[in-house]
Each structure stands twice: as structure tokens, then as C-alpha cells.
Amino acid sequence: MKESGANIFRGGAFKPRSSPYSFRGLGEDGLKFLASARQETGLPIITEVMTIADIEIVHRYSDILQVGARNMQNFNLLDEVGRQDKPVMLKRGLSATFEEWLLAAEYIMAKGNRQVMLCERGIRTFESYTRNTLDLAAVPVIQKLSHLPIICDPSHGTGKWYLVPAMAAASVAAGADGLMVEVHPAPDHAKSDGAQSLTFENFSLLMERVRALSRIAVGKPISAALG
Ligand code: PEP
Ligand code: MN
Question: Number of C-alpha atoms within 13 angstroms, CB side, residue 106?
Fold first, then answer.
């Protein structure tokens, strides 16, 4: 992924799952895997922190803290990541308005941590063919209403790998500051979200497309692509 242009590595060690019987991550062992991936690749790590109790251990291993969609309005967690000295990526809640999302970011910044980026990951709509509806208007809206970087996650935003390249390209065309893309060497065997994960080969093709597009359509290099 690094060869293809990814510059941050993301994986879940503490994973929020809709079903308690789904794979919920490996906890600290997972964080150790992420640390060894950083060691090997030099890529910084981002991983989710689900509860205040986990902040200390996630902070020890991770370069960036992710707050997931389901925790966007966990105000006590937001306060606490706001007291940390590491950047936070705040994902949009499943049914959150822009105002609610920006106020959630405000919770973090009000505690002193100004290093916040936002991640559009799709919202709940009547449509069920896609897992979520990627709300691309979020990109120019957030850029109008705030100074915060806006990352798009076309993987959770669609739930289907074959929709990811087009929506990644559309995100870049809309002016997104970065992409978060799920990749797996063998998506059919992934413990989580295989249906929305790209193979290495398809990720590489996506990056070629996005790189060309970012030069032409927006005139700025894409700043982050996350695997
Ligand atoms: C994730 O990024 O792994 C995740 C669970 O996404 P979300 O919080 O957007 O559902
Ligand atoms: Mn996932």
C-alpha cells in the first residue's frame, strides 16, 4: 500500500461491531501488530479508541486517535481525547447533521486539542443497496463552515468494494483532503468488512486514478490515503 501511495496505516484493535458475535478486534495484541507494521513501513498508525478506559493504551501505540461514528456524540470520550496530545480523526455519526458533527469536534478542541480532522463515512438513508449513503456535499460544506481537514471513507460509505474507486475519485474531485480506504490481501477471508475491502491490485489502480484526478480536477496533491 505504501508503494501505491498510502501514507498512513489504519487497522482496528478495538472494533465497534453491530453484532456482539462479530470479530471485535485483538485488543492490545492488535495494537502490537499495528506497531510492528509501523516499524516495518515507517507509516504512522491510526486506530480507534472506543472508551475513555482505552485511551491510555491506544495513545501508547497509535499516532492518531480515531473516534468512530457510533461514538461521535460520546461527549465524555470527546472531552478526554481533547486532552490528548495526538491528532484525532472524528467520524461522522450515522445520522448526524453537520452542525452536530462540528459541535462534536468543538468538544475536542475546547479541551485544547486543535488537531482534529473529520471523516465523512456515509449516513443512514432509505437506500439499502449501499451500506450507507456517502454524503459528498460534506466536503464543500465542511470546508465552508470550518478550517478542519475533511477525509472521505468510501469503504464504509458504500459497503461494496466495486463502488469504492468511483466514490474515492468523486471525493477527490469534490476537494477532499484525504481518503480512508479499506484494503485486504484476501478480502473473502477478512475477519471484518471484506465486502468493502480492495485487493492490493485494485488499491493501486484506485491510487493511479485518484492521483491523476487530483492534479487535473482540484489542482492539489491528495494528502492522505489510508489502508
Ligand atoms: C471503522 O472505521 O472501522 C468503522 C467502524 O467505521 P465507522 O465508525 O465509520 O462505522
Ligand atoms: Mn471497517
Answer: 8
